[in-house]
Design a protein that fits this description.
alpha+beta, Aminopeptidase, four-stranded antiparallel sheet, 14 helices, binds ligand BES, binds zinc ion
Length: 466
């Protein structure tokens, strides 16, 4: 059978099985694989085992669960095409916590289809995108009995908590993950109908600040005015993190930040990005940010600092007159090339400690971090991925984008293999990832399966490492 004809029969098969693919994804989304919660440790493992079993069921028979100090890594390979290129597909099967639970229209782990959307925690981030690949592989194997290349699969259970055990895994198993190219589907497209290839991610440094002023909570009448209040110290410290214009005051914070080149600025400015859409999608009243940069530049190529949570003292119903003993905050910094998360965390921690008043102690813990990633996307492999996306989505062009989120794996594998990483995500910016009522657009899920099937065919042309 001529080559084009073979792909088209696989695509026909995918089109005929559209509804079944949704039913099967629902089973995966039902598993509450919340990696940050010790209560869900066994659910996370069950999810890993489910994926391992699915891989075997669709004909990828060499599979293995690797234990780590945290959640297991699912590894599998179909490498029966001697001489053909090998592609490593990465995704994550862990999901974010579901709070605030009362804001979900239907429960997060009882996936529900409404208006062409699949609602459920993990539907887009990242189970739907992982499953798009499994379904494309299944279609190739069911329809042709083979694949046009060799595939390796690496599904992680700790992406949402900083991938702390992944670097060690990759170091110990360097030969296993050796490949000619890496594919990651864990990012949104720029907009509906505009499939996108992401060539840059921000990094992350995440800290917790704990302020203590006295041994135990105190009566605010008996001690107010003579004993320092840690909540006030915390508020004062946090207020020193940025100046009036929003510039981050951590010493050395901007030292290594690479400036945006003018041709990249022009490319970003030419993207069909509608600022108003961000307001509509988020319900925010106005956009803000660093002066001298466009919204996309601020989101994708400039570092930021955000408080994620502040707590301490009395927050229940009614009033209680108390000076709390401690106050706490969690904060994260999104980083850009070439800021190093370890260097930035250390600088931020010492700056925070230096702001402590004499009457309080400030402890800073580094919770996790991840490196940023950037690829100039000049390697011809990107053109192959673009062609696959155009065919899969039935469009003439794609967008090259960066993203503000982080996927620590990408920089690690890019540095280790020096091979291109193709970030072809099938999500949309407004699918409520990490928030209540996360959803996956089922049309994009279907087109993601089609695109993956085309992608394997396109990538079969890759030169091999030998
Ligand atoms: N899918 C996201 C990464 C992402 C988010 C890409 C937004 C593009 C836009 C991923 O699951 C994620 O949430 N990553 C974490 C990583 C962190 C815990 C190290 C993130 O970005 O917060
Ligand atoms: Zn996520």
């Amino acid at each position: 059978m001529p080559k084009e004809r073979t792909v088209e029969t696989v695509i026909d098969h995918i089109d005929r099985n559209r509804d079944r693919y949704v039913r099967e994804l629902i089973e995966l989304v039902k598993i509450p694989s919340i990696s940050s919660s010790s209560k869900h440790r066994l659910d996370v493992r069950r999810c890993a085992e489910y994926l391992q079993h699915e891989l075997e069921r669709i004909g990828v028979r060499k599979t293995r669960l690797f234990e780590t100090d945290g959640h297991p890594v699912v590894y599998a390979e179909w490498t029966e095409n001697a001489g053909a290129p090998t592609v490593l597909i990465y995704g994550h099967y862990d999901v974010q916590p579901v709070d605030p639970l009362d804001q979900w229209v239907t429960p997060p782990f009882e996936p529900d289809v409404r208006n062409g959307r699949l609602y459920g925690r993990g539907s887009v981030d990242d189970k739907g995108q992982v499953f798009a690949h499994l379904k494309a592989v299944e279609a190739w194997l069911q329809q042709t009995g083979t694949l046009p290349l060799n595939l390796k699969f690496l599904f992680e259970g700790e992406e949402e908590i900083g991938s702390a055990n992944l670097d060690g895994f990759l170091r110990d198993n360097a030969a296993l993950v050796r490949s000619d190219c890496v594919v990651v589907s864990d990012t949104p497209m720029l907009a509906r109908g505009l499939p996108s290839i992401c060539y840059g991610l921000r990094g992350l440094a995440y800290l917790q600040v704990d302020v203590r002023a006295c041994a135990s909570d105190l009566h605010s009448g008996s001690f107010g005015g003579v004993i320092g209040n840690p909540l006030h110290a915390l508020v004062h410290i946090l207020d020193q993190l940025k100046d009036q214009s929003g510039r981050i005051r951590v010493p050395g914070f901007y030292d290594k930040v690479l400036p945006l080149e003018s041709d990249e600025r022009a490319a970003l400015a030419a993207l069909p990005f509608v600022e108003q859409q961000v307001l509509t999608d988020t319900g925010a009243q106005a956009l803000l940010g660093e002066e001298g940069y466009t919204t996309l530049e601020r989101l994708w190529a400039r570092p930021t600092l955000d408080l994620n949570g502040i707590w301490g003292g009395f927050i229940e119903e009614g009033a209680k007159t108390v000076i709390p003993a401690t106050a706490h905050a969690k904060l994260s910094m999104r980083l850009v090339p070439e800021q190093d998360p370890a260097v930035i965390s250390t600088a931020a921690a010492s700056y925070l400690r230096s702001l402590a008043p004499a009457w309080a102690t400030v402890d800073v813990q580094v919770l996790h971090g991840g490196q940023s990633w950037y690829d100039p996307h000049t390697d011809p492999t990107f053109d192959l991925a673009a062609a696959a996306l155009c065919k899969g989505f039935g469009v003439e062009r794609i967008a090259y984008i960066r993203e503000g989120g982080s996927i620590p794996f990408v920089r690690t594998i890019a540095d280790a293999t020096h091979r291109p990483c193709l970030l072809i995500g099938f999500g949309l910016p407004d699918e409520c990832a990490h928030a209540p009522n996360e959803w996956l657009d089922l049309d994009n899920y279907h087109k993601g399966i089609r695109s993956s099937a085309y992608l394997y065919d396109e990538l079969s042309q890759l030169p091999t490492l030998g």
